[in-house]
Amino acid sequence: MARVDLSELARALSRRDLLKGAAGGAALAATRGGGNTLLTGAAGGAAALLASSAGEALAQGVRSYTLTASAVNWTVGGRITVPAYAYSLNGGAPTVPGPTIRATAGETLQITVVNRLAVPTTVHWHGVHAIPNGMDGVPAVTQEPIPPGGSFAYRFPAPPPGTYVYHSHVDVAVQVPRGLYGLLVVDDPKPGVRTAVPWRRDASERRYDREYPLVLGDIQDAVGNAYHIINGKTFYGLAAVSEPANQGRLVFSMNRGERVLFRAWNASAAETHPMHTHGMAFAVVAADGMDLEVPVRRHNMGIDPGEGYDIIAHADNPGVWVFHCHNLHHAVNGMIAVNVVS
Ligand SMILES: [Cu+2]
Predict the structure, then answer these.
(1) Most CB atoms within 10 A, among 17, 78, 99, 172?
(2) Are the C-beta atoms of 308 and 289 separated by less than 8 Å?
(3) 334 C-alpha vs ligand 1 centroid, how far in Å?
(4) DSSP state for residue 143 in the 8-state scheme
(5) pTM of the model
(6) Which pLDDT does position 26 carry in this prediction?
(7) Residues linked to residue 40 through DSSP beta bridges, in sequence order
(8) Class for the domain spanning 43-195
(9) Class of the 6-40+203-341 domain?
(10) Distance from C-alpha of 325 to C-alpha of 4, rounded to nearest angstrom
């Protein structure tokens, strides 16, 4: 007889309720606002990860980027370095995850992907549906793979405001976990418009003061040891909290009273990450880039491979609070972040 895990069942049920709220999200997403984003407050790594629009070219509503894939050695934390694939944007440093690509609704995105890997690759725009078929990035279906040394120009209208993802679509079970993924964020051209929507009685639930990425994954070293990573970094002890490279990636600074948007996505090939906050709850305001009609309050929520959620935490209690995966094998393997409320 099959054993029924009640906690799994409860989680599945609550996720079903949560997704039910996503119906009609597409219409609402068109009015989704950017909130009062304090990007300047994001220190160190967060600035690099979030303010990646610097250097992009914007001409006549076309936002142009060059996204380059290459093989690197990536330091996940402490002295732990792994062979990785990484994206760089407009000639910047290659990172895992790739730098966040930003656009404003109404613009056209033109992203030239340059392949400096030794293997073919493509890029898929995860969650972007209103896209010409030939721009979807699926090898042998919509395009020839981009060969080593080659490039391909993707061009498509920016989707409605929200959180999307870009990732490799070649040899996915290898290329994605190894680092070829990143966030694609579309901002609302009219911040605050959401509060003008008369049926949106819960607009205060969706306001945020500051944002961080929360991109989850696992990556292996040369001998096959897996490291569970948040924004490309793994927790290796208390020293990780003060390491500059972890600020904004594994250590999230926030002022008391702030509402902090985390753009969460799971890049793992096969593992769910139930993320759990200490010292604060959060409201899930969007699933897979689409607004939920009714935000759902949680402090622990499973994120399946390929799933994304926008969650807004309320930093109302000063302290140093861990924010970790509640698959406890992952937590002890480094999947721990820290919310510092001061
Ligand atoms: Cu996990």
Answers:
(1) 99
(2) yes
(3) 9
(4) B
(5) 0.81
(6) 30
(7) none
(8) mainly beta
(9) mainly beta
(10) 22
